[in-house]
Amino acid sequence: MLLKTEHLTKNFGGLTALNKVDFEINEGELVAIIGPNGAGKSTFFNVISGFYRPSSGTIKFMGKEITNLETHNFARLGIGRTFQTTHLFTDSTVLDNLIIGYRSKTKMGFFDAIFYSPRSRREENMCREKAEEILDFIGLLEFKNYPVANISQEAAKRLAIGLALVTEPRLLLLDEPAAGINHGETTNLANLIKKIQQSGITVCLIEHKMKMVMNLAEKIMVLNYGTKIAEGTPKEVSENERVIEAYLGGVEHA
Amino acid sequence: MLSFLKEHKFKFIGYGLLLIIGIIFPIVSPNRYYLTVATLGFIYAIAVYGLNLIVGYLGQLSLAQAGFFGLGAYTSGLLMLKLDLNFWLALPLAAIITTILAVLVGLISFRTKGHYFVILTLCIGVIINLVIEKWDSLTGGVRGLIGIPLPNPIGPLEFKTLESQYYLVFVFLLITIYVMNRISSSLLGRTFRSIRNSEDLASTLGINVMYNKLLGFAIAAFFTGIAGALYASYIRFLGPEISTHHLTFEFLLFLLIGGQATVAGPLVGTLIASVITESLQFAQEYRMVIFGLMLILIVRFFPGGAVGEARKLKVKVTDFYNRRKAGNYPSGPGAGSSKGKLGVPSKGESHVTKN
Q1: ipTM surpassing 0.95, yes or no?
Q2: This prediction's pTM
Q3: Which of B103, B190, B318, B351 to mutate to test the interface with A (most CBs of A within 10 A)?
Q4: Burial (CB count within 10 angstroms: exposed 0-12, middle 13-18, buried 19+), residue B108
Q5: How many CB pairs below 8 A link A and B?
Q6: Which one of B352, B353, B354 makes the best mutation probe of the A interface by having the most chain A beta carbons within 10 Å?
Q7: Fewer beta carbons under 10 A from the terminal one: N or C of chain B?
């Protein structure tokens, strides 16, 4: 088991955004989290990527408890993520964006920098090679010298995923990767996600595009009002009474 | 090697020019007054380089800069006056003590962000200034420290003349520029810039934001401390006013004129501002009114400063030639519609948003 949460709870003042969520992600899986708006999906992501401290409950990653680590250590242990609104370093080029992603694997410090030590040169090359490798993987190598501001929405989405991939994650969290892009592009993106999984990285995504989720995911967790209401294969989940109720408002069950 | 030279053509030309002009300036300078202005300008420029690291590269608007400058100056001055220390011992000690204090300040102030950080550092600057002003028995209070010795000679090299002091400061300036250039073009500079861009994104990439902010703050304070120590032995008199926020805002103005997050910006800005200051002597107190107006115009119309705007212009010109050569610029990935021009992102089309 790669990641395991137990009784994960997050309160914002009086609001319980996550309520005792137990969830497991196994190595190599492609998992999706769905739920109506405000169900706590992004909060769940923010907690398991170290952005928010949970109010209670625990997170275990590769058997080790990581609940109270600092954000940057989550990344160092192998949890990579993207954001719902595409986060990139806006004032640099496509390649430069990815180079910094490999920084946590390097060790060079201030004195390496000022003396231009062999280590700093070696690590700068390492970062560049890794960045180009990932650009090739996500299909953006030919645009490496473009300013990020000049690439399309879909390319920016790919680049954001690439940025998470550069950190060499074992678990990749994708927060609405297909938001705001058209149908054809969604198919391309789904293929990329599949390709990431096939390369051995465990993927967990939040997505509203149901068709994409149903085609991609092996396991789905459904959240509503911060509580897990269902978990299972796409088929099981889509036939689950409580899920239908949550999505359709439960008029029939009054 | 040749391609390396070609790629960094502008950098080498810049360094060459700086070196040549810097060396021949005292020889061709028509009067000693210009030399005084240049020496002081170089000292300030070193402090502005420190500020640039925090404000420009890390994106943290620290207003404690003059406090650190004053701290470096007073530490060096007191070590030389009261303990009879050699300048070459007092200077590094002043820099180190300033750095240690900066790390302590950073540990507290980097717990805050945005406006809170700005206000907190402003207060820290004020506290340093008050300590210097009120600790009469040590610092001489408002009367100041008088008669700080000249830098001690290194073998046959003496620093009694204005020219020799000028060259001394110039060497320190060159070292500072070299270090800043190395930081800027290394992974460390990338790390700092990524924090300025988005702390959230940087931390999800495994970058320890707090540590890197502290590191940047410490390096900045080290050079600011050096600038202070050089000032002490150059002016040879210290008053508490060198640690007030007025000086911080002047440093900030120099930085904005020159261009933040650029390697040449602090020097260019400081020199431009020094020339303007000297040519506005006739306006006396009203000088600040003119400076204020300038600041507004720069922030509004030339946010990149002299160096930043020049760089933008260069990108535009290169783009223009590329277009002419290629007929048209190739379109971006999946960009059937024409996107913004190279290097000139059009606001409406920017697909990249921040939280």
Answers
A1: no
A2: 0.87
A3: B351
A4: exposed
A5: 152
A6: B352
A7: N
